[in-house]
Backbone:
């Protein structure tokens, strides 16, 4: 478990060489969840923190569960959309394993959160991707457009 913690920390801090070295261990649990950080995986924290080079490395490792969510149900894709990491969003959209419509525990989708946060370039990407369910609503019945309006992103 010590190496899993090191991997998580390396992904969080953007330490590419350290992560590369740890990836050489075939017994490493790549989807280990840090119980002290909302059960986030190393891949999740790399996407959430915008660590592009590390995300590239991890996407090439078939051991990674690219859709493994943390406690609130946020996937790595959701985390990238939340924080406006456009290049990571593009990389994840190009990976067919990524569930781009997977909602969190409150039925908010990556598109919903991008609308709330006003990440216009990400919203455009998602609206133009035929796989995205633009009619999906939150558990409260909010549409993506209503979310954007409510949070003052559309004037």
Residues:
């Amino acid at each position: 478990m010590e190496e899993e913690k090191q991997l998580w920390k390396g992904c969080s801090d953007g330490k590419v060489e350290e992560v590369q070295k740890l990836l050489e261990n075939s017994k490493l649990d790549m989807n280990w969840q840090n119980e002290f950080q909302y059960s986030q995986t190393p891949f999740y924290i790399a996407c959430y923190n915008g660590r592009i080079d590390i995300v590239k490395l991890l996407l090439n490792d078939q051991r990674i569960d690219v859709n493994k969510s943390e406690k609130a149900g946020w996937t790595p894709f959701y985390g990238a959309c939340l924080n406006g990491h456009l290049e990571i969003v593009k990389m994840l959209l190009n990976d067919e394993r990524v569930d781009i419509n997977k909602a969190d525990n409150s039925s908010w989708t990556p598109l919903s959160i991008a609308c709330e946060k006003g990440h216009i370039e990400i919203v455009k990407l998602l609206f133009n991707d035929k796989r995205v369910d633009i009619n999906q609503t939150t558990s409260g019945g909010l549409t993506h457009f209503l979310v954007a309006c409510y949070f003052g992103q559309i004037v």
About this structure: The first helix runs from residue 2 to 13. The chain has one domain: 2-150.
